[in-house]
Amino acid sequence: MKRIDAHQHFWRRDRGDYGWLQPHLTPIYRDYLPADLAPQIAAAGVDATIAVQAAPTVAETRYLLGLARENAFIAGVVGWVDFAAADAADVIASLASDDKLVGLRPMIQDIADPEWMLLPDLAPAFEAMIDHGLVFDALVLPKHLPNLRELVARYPDLTMVLDHGAKPPIAAGDIGAWQREIRELASASGIVCKLSGLVTEAGSADPAVLADAVNHLLDCFGPRRLLWGSDWPVCELVCSYADWDRASTALLARLPPAERALIQFENARKTYGI
User: Fold this and answer.
1) What are the pLDDT digits (tens) for 29-49?
2) Can you give the residue ranges of every domain in the chain?
3) CA atoms within 13 A on the CB side of 52
4) 4-272 maps to which CATH number?
């Protein structure tokens, strides 16, 4: 079975634009480069990846595009642009001239204003994404889901992906409110969702701990609207690439092979135009 890892990161600390990456994040406070990932995806049988931005700078996006040109397994890059900048549309057009750019991701989870994504000043950026066939990755928290529903309705021609299932509060032990908002979002739109990042929210790679959240995502989005991703190396705060691969394999084991293939390959290929 072919596989695509629809969500992984690289970083090199001396670049200096990863403000969130601080020494207290001991397990991942080091450089992570393609040579570190290549043996892990080979062991997991993953054929290609989507490299996703980890810094809010255009410079990092160009850095990732350079890595994609040098490493054939990086099938696409989800980058970053200042959506509120007056020249956002021009910057998007410039970046989109590189066919390895498949999407953009503002770091909404870190923006203080929960209404930010709905600001009128962002319209030129969203419209430029549509014009250039780019995917919008929504890095949001559960509190953002009502606004994300409105955003999806506002831009029906923009392909949108929900990162990490909107980060359900699994470790807190109460995902009821998240479940309700996810169901509303999935039923009101055609947005697709990444099956990724859940081990970080749970603090565990135990399938029994993750099962309620994963089963809810399967129930709401179905196998045709889920994309498998590792969130490597962030996952290493909790577990290895191989640990998450084993856990997700167990969690999806009840599905027939054709449905697992959709989640692990075809949906990412189609969504990102790989």
Assistant:
1) 999 999 999 999 999 999 999
2) 4-272
3) 25
4) 3.20.20.140
